[in-house]
Design a protein that fits this description.
The protein has 369 residues and is an alpha+beta fold. It folds into 3 domains: 128 residues, no CATH class; 79 residues, Alpha-Beta Complex (Dipeptide-binding Protein, domain 1); 137 residues, no CATH class. Helices cover 18% and strands 36% of the residues. Strands 3-4-5-10-7-6 form a 6-stranded antiparallel barrel. Strands 2-11-13-12 form a 4-stranded antiparallel β-sheet, with helices on one face. β4 and β5 form a beta hairpin. α1 crosses α5.
């Protein structure tokens, strides 16, 4: 890697800001949740049929045979005493989310996941499955053809799998049969919960709502909660929320760096800054070569052939051998641009950022995944 001295000379002439940057605004509805308006999780146990020989085996998944037997008996087919060994049936768990204010007859998407040893759910059909909530009551029933995004290809001597063929979805596969009774318009107070709690953002939302209504309706309780007093509002709570949820507000984001070591992705926050620090970065390459030598005994002797290990280890160091000095007026985004221009890999960038954080030169939260 080239020396970083050129990088610092380049960054020294880059101004931090030539003009003030306009602060991005977003809607209140995009940063808060309304207390009581939420989804509810549903789950059910079901059977998938119509698989092309990729279903559960009876030996490893005996519950699949029992479930199929009980289902056929409910349909009037007597299979008691019969030995059933289907290869096109699989036992699955079905999950879904019941939206807030969902009504009878509405359709929702469901996810299907195999719980046995089925290798592929492609081409399968989910049979009528009740979906229950946390109170063990049935709120929806699911049925339909499964869409699988994964691929599983087998040959005589090889097999290739991409994605997850043992899981899939049924779009609009469940129909709601029971509603959750909740009269939202009877409330005299509404609580807004910030998805990312922050004192500055909460204060701005309070000021924006009160300025729009010209009345002290909103009150910030803490960094993640804003209470709305509706006792002096003539509109219904639903109409009131519709009138304020699209108000623009400036969201305050913390200075944060996210490093995903698996994919090599580095995400930088806007307010990340660095202090004056010196950096030296290089790579060490280790090459190990094995060339065993066979030691033969003398002719007509009782000796044995012995393989003697021989190893050659070479250590070389590449990259910059100079120490670079970063001035305090250089932002981290400018540093990354300079490193990109020099062809530094994401892994090397992540190592540099971690070392700078350890040295206390980066003023931001570092999140490593």
């Amino acid at each position: 890697m080239k020396t970083l001295i050129w990088l610092i000379a380049t960054l020294a002439v880059i101004p931090l800001a030539c003009a003030p940057t306009a602060l991005a605004q977003t809607r209140i509805r995009d940063v808060v949740n309304v207390e009581g308006v939420r989804q509810n999780d549903l789950v059910g146990y079901g059977i998938v049929v119509g698989l092309n020989g990729t279903g559960d085996s009876v030996r490893n998944s005996p519950f699949t045979e029992d479930s199929l037997t009980h289902m056929l008996e409910r349909l009037g087919v007597n299979v008691q005493g019969e030995e059933i060994k289907p290869k096109n049936v699989a036992a699955v768990l079905v999950t879904a989310s019941l939206p807030a204010f969902a009504r009878n007859g509405s359709s929702i998407d469901v996810s299907v996941s195999s719980i046995g040893d089925a290798s592929n759910l492609e081409g399968g059909t989910l049979i009528l499955t009740p979906l229950k909530g946390a109170d063990n009551e049935v709120y929806a029933v699911a049925q339909g053809s499964i869409i699988v995004s994964g691929i599983d290809v087998k040959a005589e001597a090889s097999r290739e799998t991409r994605g997850t063929p043992t899981g899939g979805t049924v779009p609009n596969g469940a129909r709601i049969e029971r509603e959750i009774n909740y009269d939202f318009n009877e409330r005299s107070q509404i609580t807004l919960a910030l998805r990312s709690p922050d004192f500055t953002t909460a204060a701005r939302i309070e000021d924006t709502i009160n300025a729009s209504l010209k009345a002290p309706v909103a009150s910030m309780r803490d960094s993640g909660t804003i209470e709305l007093d509706l006792r002096g509002i003539s509109e219904s709570p639903s109409r009131f929320l519709a009138s304020i949820e699209n108000l623009p507000v400036i969201v305050s984001n913390p200075a944060r760096i996210v490093i995903d070591e698996k994919s090599g992705t580095i995400v930088l926050g806007e307010d990340v800054t660095i202090s004056k620090v010196a950096i030296a970065q290089g790579n060490i390459s280790i090459k190990v070569t094995e060339y065993p030598v066979a030691s033969q005994p003398n002719p007509f002797s009782d000796g044995e052939t012995i393989v003697l290990p021989r190893s050659d280890i070479q250590i070389t160091e590449t990259g910059s051998r100079n120490i670079a000095m970063l001035e305090s007026n250089v932002s981290l985004s400018q540093l990354i641009k300079g490193l990109n221009a020099l062809g530094v890999s994401p892994q090397e960038m992540a190592d540099i950022i971690r070392s700078m954080k350890t040295a206390g030169a980066i003023h931001a939260e570092l999140v490593i995944r």
